[in-house]
Amino acid sequence: MASLSPDRVTTGARTEVLTPITLGFLAGLLWLAWQAIRLPILTLLVMFEPIVNFALSALALLIALTAFFWKLATSKLYFPFWTIVAVSLACVLLLALYHALIRILSGNAPRI
After folding, report:
1. Which residues of 2-13 are buried (b: 16+ CB within 10 A; e: fewer)?
2. 85, exposed or middle or buried, with CB in 10 Å at 0-12, 13-18, 19+?
3. Average pLDDT in the chain
4. Same domain, 33 and 83
5. Has this prediction a pTM greater than 0.70?
6. Using one digit for the tens of pLDDT, what is the confidence trace for 69-107?
7. Burial class of residue 47 (count of CB atoms within 10 Å of its CB; 0-12, 13-18, 19+)
8. Do 52 and 16 belong together in one domain?
9. How far is CA 104 from the centre of its chain?
């Protein structure tokens, strides 16, 4: 029969002790693994940020201007104006998500 206490698990003749030192060591290993994953990804995101920022902003503006141009220039009824405007807004949302990911990985995310 197993008896449980806050820091000790006894199973028959075997006793496992989970001390605060062991838990702290495991927490440190987990933190170290997170840093090993987080920092290279953050480095790449920050390096490509100017390129992604320019590309997505320019693409959103170009798509929106094209949609308005074709809306005013053509009399066809089946022109997908709102679909093209939605694609332009999707580029802006993608840029916002990119910046949010950088903030999360850099540790500057707002605390709730």
Report:
1. eeeeeeeeeeee
2. middle
3. 86
4. no
5. yes
6. 998 888 777 888 999 999 999 999 999 999 999 999 998
7. exposed
8. no
9. 7
One-letter amino acid at 81 equals F
Q: What is the pLDDT of residue 79?
A: 82
For the CA atoms of 16, 6, 21, 1, what is the dihedral angle to 10 degrees? Answer: 0
Give me the number of domains the chain comprises: 2
In order, the DSSP letters of 46-107 are HHTHHHHHHHHHHHHHHHHHHHHHHHHH---TT--HHHHHHHHHHHHHHHHHHHHHHHHHHT
Query: Domain check: are 110 and 86 in the same one?
Result: yes
- Cα separation, 47 vs 41, in Å, equals 10
